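Ligand-bound model needed. iron/sulfur cluster.
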Amino acid sequence: MKTIPLFAMTSRDDASVTIPWGAVLSTIILTAGMLTVVQIVVDRPMLLVDRFFPGMGWIEILVLSLYAGFVTPKILNPKTSVRWRTILWLTFSVIFFSQLTLGIFGFTTFLMTGVLHYPVPALIVAGPIYRGEDFFMPILFGSTLFFIGPAWCSYFCYLGGWDFLASQQVKRPRKLSKWRRPKQIAILVLVVGGALYLRFSGIPISIVSRLVALFGLGGFFIIIFLSRRYGSMIHCISYCPIGLVANIFGKISPFRMKIDSSCTSCGQCSMVCRYDALRPENIKQKKPGLSCTLCGDCINTCSNNYIHYSFPGLSPQAARTLFIVIVVSFHAVSIGVARI
Ligand code: SF4
Ligand code: SF4
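Prediction:
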């Protein structure tokens, strides 16, 4: 088995838990490095502390880097990874929506540009098409696709975490209709086509705004009523167009979830997949479906480790460690800079 020496560095903090110091250090350095670039290169103060106490953003960089190092072993440990992935995801969402709420009440320092936008993920694609400018979000989203594939939808999205929580109200996901994917494709075409039409039709912004609000409300309705009922993330896998875009274009990243040929098709892993990516046909073909977001919740369900992360040239363990180092660093950076 091939290992990266840095990731193989370990020591024990008690009799049963091994701290992956190599991964912890890598996450701290990567987080600090990315935030330092933001701090030096971007003119506008991006870090919140800098906005209130100019020049003090470096303290926030230190805190966020240490935080990233602290959570890395929690996510790396397969026994605690699902719980901690949920905590991280919802923590980001709560911070995101708290800043948005403060912005709505007039505290514009908590907003990215001082201007409010709807917190609807579909706008990542539809917004720039409608406006013909402001490509910050598509670039940010695209860079996550490049580094960690579709994991935007299982670690970062401020809405996806709530869909995940809703889906967990049912112990096991129920079988879904085969029309799930065609519906999502139709919604993507509608959103892109609709944004183009609205751009050139001269329809007043007040109407456009209402349409966006309606689309967002539809999403909340689906999370509350359908995801809770079916035990799957119905909003993300059949309504949100960004989920489909992430699944398709996330293939540019070399990270994959693989099922070994020795898999016995027992179906144990499919009991935890809320993304409908481990249907019997997927397991039979030894390949998770397109809707897999690399969340990693399934890896601890197979007692033989037949389902695992893969990255060219790395062992499954090293691939997972590398993936988590990048994901956790991006998460910590997002806490520092991501806001509407
Ligand atoms: S599918 Fe849409 S709402 Fe769900 S996690 Fe992805 S971007 Fe967010
Ligand atoms: S196949 Fe595994 S990694 Fe992929 S979405 Fe399902 S549970 Fe997550």
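The first helix runs from residue 5 to 8.
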